[in-house]
Specification:
The chain is of the alpha/beta class. It has nine helices and eight strands. The structure holds BIS(adenosine)-5'-pentaphosphate.
Length: 214
């Protein structure tokens, strides 16, 4: 069987991380998130973190060469040797062309989560993340058992700095300009599956189960 790769595509807040982590557990395939790796670099004040900081905090895309190098290094790890789910990368046609070389001869599919702007701004205003383990919650739909406390590690739940409405609007603008061309890019390769990211998590997962095929 060829190695399986799932690329998650969709606007900020469509549920790439939430759906991706759920599929990762269900299928036993590791997940890699460019946003999570960048936030770790920011926390640790690495060279990549210092370059990326102003872009991440303002909602713009980090330059291609920085992210491409970071992802290429990450994908060399043996845990990804038998396949992976990738969230947040590629985000530009250049990044997609770079990834094409790495995933040559794999069974790659792209899951595109659709959702509209006002819904996403509203949803992201209610997202909370654990500052300890990074688990994501939603104040209404996916709430923790104890208010403000992570169910997994007991860490404090905080709001991401880039989930402020003005920054979310800039992230949506960057997505529309630079990332939406990837929908056609992958559709032409006939590997794109679209599902609705607007609803409850269970509905999104049910739709994936019904429509998605490897
Ligand atoms: P990144 O962290 O990748 O942010 P994003 O793509 O904007 O995506 P989000 O993490 O905001 O949303 P998501 O779709 O994963 O939604 P989630 O599952 O959390 O990137 C951050 C920044 O890093 C970028 O702005 C950029 O600066 C930089 N960057 C990263 N990658 C880059 C690249 N390749 N090139 C250049 N720069 C890059 O869900 C959202 C909320 O909804 C949660 O609260 C969740 O609990 C809730 N929820 C409720 N119902 C559902 C449901 N049905 N499905 C899923 N989630 C649900």
């Amino acid at each position: 069987m060829r190695k399986r790769v799932l690329i998650l595509l969709g606007p900020p807040g469509a549920g790439k991380g939430t759906v991706g982590n759920s599929l990762s557990k269900q299928w036993g395939i590791p997940i890699i998130s460019s946003g999570d790796i960048l936030r770790e670099h920011l926390k640790a004040n690495t060279d990549i973190g210092n370059i990326a900081k102003k872009y991440v905090e303002s909602g713009e895309l980090v330059p291609d060469d920085v992210v491409e190098g970071m992802i290429a290094d990450e994908l060399k790890k043996t845990i990804y040797a038998n396949g992976f789910i990738i969230d947040g990368f590629p985000r530009t046609v250049n990044q997609a062309k770079m990834l094409d070389k790495i995933i040559e001869n794999t069974n790659t599919k792209v899951l595109y989560l659709k959702a509209d702007d006002d819904f996403l701004v509203n949803r992201l205003s209610k997202r909370r993340v654990c500052e300890g383990c990074g688990k994501t919650y939603h104040l209404i739909n996916i709430s923790p058992q104890k208010e403000g406390i992570c169910d997994i590690c007991g860490g404090k739940l905080i709001q991401r700095a880039d989930d402020r409405e003005d920054v979310v609007r800039r992230r949506l603008a960057a997505y529309k300009e630079l990332t939406t061309p990837l929908i056609e890019y992958y559709d032409r390769k006939k590997i794109l599956f679209s599902v609705n990211g607007n609803g409850e998590l269970i509905d999104t997962l049910t739709e994936i189960k019904k429509t998605f095929e490897w």
